[in-house]
Structure formats: structure tokens, C-alpha cells
Amino acid sequence: MSLLRRIRHSHTSIIRRFMAPSEPISPSNTRLGWIGTGVMGHSMCAHLIRAGYSLTVFNRTLAKAQPLVDLGAHLAASPNAVAARSDVVFSIVGYPSDVRSVLLDPATGALAALRPGGVLVDMTTSEPSLAVEIAAAAAAKGCHSVDAPVSGGDLGARNGTLAIFAGGEESTVENLKPLFSVLGKVNYMGGSGKGQFSKLANQVTIASTMVGLVEGMVYAHKAGLDVGLYLEAISTGAAGSRSLDLYGKRILKRDLQAGFYVNHFVKDLGICLKECENMGIALPGLALAQQLYVSLKAHGEGNLGTQALILVLERLNNLSLSLPSPSNA
């Protein structure tokens, strides 16, 4: 078979797979693209490479993609160039404006170069309305789109245990399961935009949980407790949480490096509040948490992890959990 005929056969196969699937996705029949190789994206992309998939990657800072190139990925100069070599294109970038740029820009965006039957999978936490817009634009080209934001932080990305919230055509999500299973557990949440709504609800829950976690730690410290022992004691009770498991010990060690950036959490909570306004609902815990995280950003701490919320509580109470012993004055 000539090279041209093999290329045509590959493109025909991917179109048929997502319209009327005949064989599951595998490294032998599906080329992947990845846009955004930051804290989360790097680990997720690496899992797919190690699973045997051929990947083409793009990152605005090209040097940050070099470790993936060392693993075997191909480096592209633009999102458009990624899509030209891919059947399924994943993206996980910072902000809704970045999503719009890397996927929908008519000159450099991925959709412009994606062939009919191809799939966009945006794993950025973004606006539900933008997910609906991307899906409509993809459908107009004979392509598919899934909004699939994730939860689990850097640890979940490294371990391949992310919770994935997927919105879009159920058949498309089902076809993508061999890829999602490499990254974590996919949960089908409904039509386009429902993945984003699910992730935003997840962020609402996390926001108040983080406030409770750090308030409990400050309270225990001021009461003269060994905070490490306190965290261990509550971890198996009703106060136990994934946030406690992921961040309690990090806070005690003063490890405030980002598994998920404060800047991005402020963005997420801002989107949540905007959607609350659209829905006509009031979530006071969300509003309080957003104010506290905005305070971190105002202090120039936006590039720390969400566990850095402890710094706000320490400033409010004029204490530090890093002191050798608590003050009972």
C-alpha cells in the first residue's frame, strides 16, 4: 500500500470509529496530540506515551515540553500543527481565553487543522458556555468535542488516578475510554458543558473543605495539640477528606509548592460565582473561600498551591504553625 493510501486509510478509519466504531482505540490506530504540558499535562501526557501512543505536543514555553520529547513525543510549533498530525487532540491550559486561543483561533488553533472525524478533548477547567461553543464549532467541521476537566491534583496526575468529568456525546466518551483509563476514571456527566459544570461543583466542594482543613489546623495548634497527631486522628473519622490526605502533611512540612495553582483556583472560583449569578443562587461558603484565595493572590502568592491558604489564616491570627510550640496566650 502506498504512503498516500495508508494516510487515507488511517483518516477513514478514525472517521468510522467515532461515527460507527468498529474497533477500539489503540496505539496502532490512533494518533494523539497534546496542548499544554504544565504541572498536570506533563504527567498525563507521559502516561499516554508510556502506554505506547504516538503523541505530538505543544507548549507555549517549548523548553517545558522537552522532557516529553525525550520520552518520544514529537514537538509541534503551534496547536494547529499538533492537530494536523493527530486524530484526538487533548488540551489542558490555564484560562478560558487560552482554551479559545489554542482550539478556536482560525489561524493557529487546533480545530482549523483537525480532519473530519477527529476529536477535541479539553481537560482545562473552563466556562460551560465555551464548551458548548467548541462543540458546535467542531460539529460544523464534522468533528467531535468533549469537555473533560479533571480533579486529583498533581498527585492524581502522576499516579494516573484522576477523576475525569466528561461532557459531550456519550458515544464519543465511550469510544475514548481506552485513553481516559490511562489517566484515571472517567465519569460521563451529560451533554456538552456538563463536564465543566461538574468540575465547578467539585471546586465549590473543595473550596469549603480547604477552609475547614486549615481552620481546624489553626484551632488545634492554638489549643496546644500536636497538629500532626491531630490530623492523623481525624483522618479516619467523619472529618477525613481527600484534601486532608493530599495537603495536611504538606502544610505541616511548609510544602506550599503548586500541585494546583492558587491563580488557577481563583479563576475557577470566579467562574463558579459567575454561574451562581446566572442560576440565581447564593453560595456563601464559596464566596468566602474566593475572597480568602484572592487575598493570597494579592500578596503575590498566586503561584503557590491551594494549600497555601494556611498563610491567610496565619496572618489573620498572627501565628505560624511552623513555630516549635503553640502560644496559649
From TrEMBL:
> Which source organism?
Cajanus cajan
InterPro entries in alphabetical order:
6-PGluconate_DH-like_C_sf, 6PGD_dom2, 6PGDH_NADP-bd, HIBADH-like_NADP-bd, HIBADH-related, NAD(P)-bd_dom_sf
GO MF assignments: NAD binding; NADP binding; oxidoreductase activity, acting on the CH-OH group of donors, NAD or NADP as acceptor
What are the record keywords, sorted? Answer: NAD, Oxidoreductase
- In Swiss-Prot or TrEMBL terms, this protein is called Oxidoreductase ykwC
What are the residue boundaries of the 3-hydroxyisobutyrate dehydrogenase-like NAD-binding domain, all occurrences included? 193-312
Q: Where is the active site?
A: 199
Q: Where is the 6-phosphogluconate dehydrogenase NADP-binding domain positioned along the sequence?
A: 32-189
